[in-house]
């Protein structure tokens, strides 16, 4: 007799093992339908896993960014609701909480922070928090705290995530830590007036963004702008001037003088 796991694996495999996005999406929809009313522990775990896997496919490439975000949130909310019926120490319950928190960032930062914290607490009490995706969860917790302007907490969480990536994680994807982590850390540090640490974080962000996107990418320019502002605050005007002049030139050429980055660069140059 075939188990539910066997059934779901066969459905998700699709016809002929095709990996095309549309067929993969439809296969997971069939799998979710097959588990509409889970009764056993195995069925609930399989449904949570499938819903999370399904939600990961919505990244702005199916129906567009906004529609995909709604689909992702809806799938993860259902995964979270089903996971609530799992044992308290089940890793899938923790993952469902974290994944829903990440999807909630743009909707409700307070709830996102709460969900991610809860999920991480479950893992800290169980299998530990040494996997790459768990460090990424801590980074997203920091992003939620950033949106809530809880600067000190944000710095603590993001710096811990950054140190974990730098220390080395066996299953970490290439390019970690990413530039966004260093930039957000610097942004929180500058709000605390910790300009020297902010400068160092922005410098790391620039290096990461140049590596990942190139020298004139908007992410790189934004990091250079804030790096230049930090240099001005530290009294390092000779270092700041050419950097801010470059930022002003690039932003004017690409976005015009009405762009806020251009105005901030010009205002900072005026202070030198």
The domain count comes to 2
**Total beta strands:** 0
Strand content: under 5%
In the CATH hierarchy, what is the class of the largest domain?
Answer: Mainly Alpha
Task: Give the CATH superfamily of the largest domain.
Answer: Tetratricopeptide repeat domain
> Which value, in Å, is the CA radius of gyration?
22 Å
Q: What's the CATH architecture of the largest domain?
A: Alpha Horseshoe
End-to-end distance: 77 Å
Structural class: mainly alpha
Ranges where pLDDT stays below 50 over 5 or more residues in a row are 14-18
Q: What's the assembly state of these chains?
A: single chain
Element order, helices and strands?
HHHHHHHHHHHHH
Describe the 3D structure.
The protein is mainly alpha-helical. The chain has two domains: about 1-130, Tetratricopeptide repeat domain (Serine Threonine Protein Phosphatase 5, Tetratricopeptide repeat); about 170-270, Tetratricopeptide repeat domain (Serine Threonine Protein Phosphatase 5, Tetratricopeptide repeat). It is about 70% helix and about 0% strand. The protein contains 13 helices and no strands. It has helices at about 5-15, 20-35, 40-55, 65-85, 90-105, 110-125, 130-145, 150-165, 180-190, 195-210, 220-235, 235-255, 260-270. The chain is elongated and about 70 Å long. The N and C termini lie far apart (about 75 Å). The relative contact order is 0.05. Residues about 15-20 have low confidence and may be disordered.
